[in-house]
Amino acid sequence: MSYLVAGPEYLSAAANSLAGIGSTLGEANAAAAASTTDIRPCARRGVEGCDGAV
Fold first, then answer.
1. pTM of the model
2. Termini Cα distance of the chain
3. What is the pLDDT of residues 28-50, one digit of tens each?
């Protein structure tokens, strides 16, 4: 049978690391949201009506 021993300092460090990753992902999501919500839907005009401008 395997046993696992986890020290509180290691768990705290892992939690802080995960919180940092979550914060970074949140910032990246916010930065990408502005550019992706401005994309004009080309489907309603057809391919010929798409000028590709964002």
1. 0.53
2. 59
3. 999 888 777 666 666 565 666 56
Q: Which two tokens stand for residue 38?
A: 């401005």
The CA distance from 19 to 39, in Å, is: 31
Sort residue 8 into left (φ over 0), alpha (ψ -120 to 50) or beta: alpha
| Span 4-18, pLDDT tens digits | 888 999 999 999 999
Residue holding tokens 């049978």? Answer: 1
Q: How many CB atoms lie within 10 A of CB 42?
A: 13
Q: Which residues contact 35 (CB under 8 A, 6 or more apart)?
A: 54
For residue 34, which amino acid is it? A
